[in-house]
């Protein structure tokens, strides 16, 4: 332990730290999303995978766990666990890929498609309300987030 027992930071107050403010902002938004989705009996990670799968199925013939991991930026092992839970709930079906017998192909069940269509508008509404505080800066903020992701 340090001899001077002083906390060393470049910031005078916590609100001066962009990382700390970002984390608090994310937590506020995330709590609203989690509370909404809890009422729909789905977790936020499950929602992300379900919504991404529904979106990808519009333009892709076959969706694999690896593709879902890439598109969501969630590691493959975690995707596998999320898919296992979605499968138990009857929202998805996993089968052997027609292109690669080592890969799993993922598709939505009618119940999964319904769940995606039910929850996406709820989350989009929360997004609209939460980010409305940015006013005319909303699009600029979006572009800045994309720049941070280097998309």
Q: What is the fourth-level CATH superfamily?
A: Winged helix-like DNA-binding domain superfamily/Winged helix DNA-binding domain
Largest sheet: 3 strands, antiparallel
Q: How many domain units?
A: 1
Instruction: Identify the quaternary structure here.
Output: single chain
Binned strand content: 5-15%
Provide the CATH topology: Arc Repressor Mutant, subunit A
Low-confidence stretches: none
Computed Rg: 19 Å
The top-level CATH class is: Mainly Alpha
For the biggest β-sheet, the strand order reads: 1-3-2
Distance between the termini: 42 Å
Helicity level, as a percent range? Answer: 55-70%
Written overview of the protein:
60% of the residues lie in helices and 8% in strands. The longest helix has 22 residues, at 18-39. The protein has one domain (42-149): Orthogonal Bundle (Arc Repressor Mutant, subunit A). The relative contact order is 0.11. The N and C termini lie far apart (42 Å). A three-stranded antiparallel beta sheet has the order 1-3-2. The protein has six helices and three strands, in the order ααβααββαα. It has helices spanning 18-39, 44-56, 65-72, 76-88, 110-131, 138-149, and strands spanning 63-64, 92-96, 104-108. The radius of gyration is 19 Å and the shape is globular. The chain is mainly alpha-helical and 151 residues long. The mean pLDDT is 94. It comes from Snodgrassella alvi.
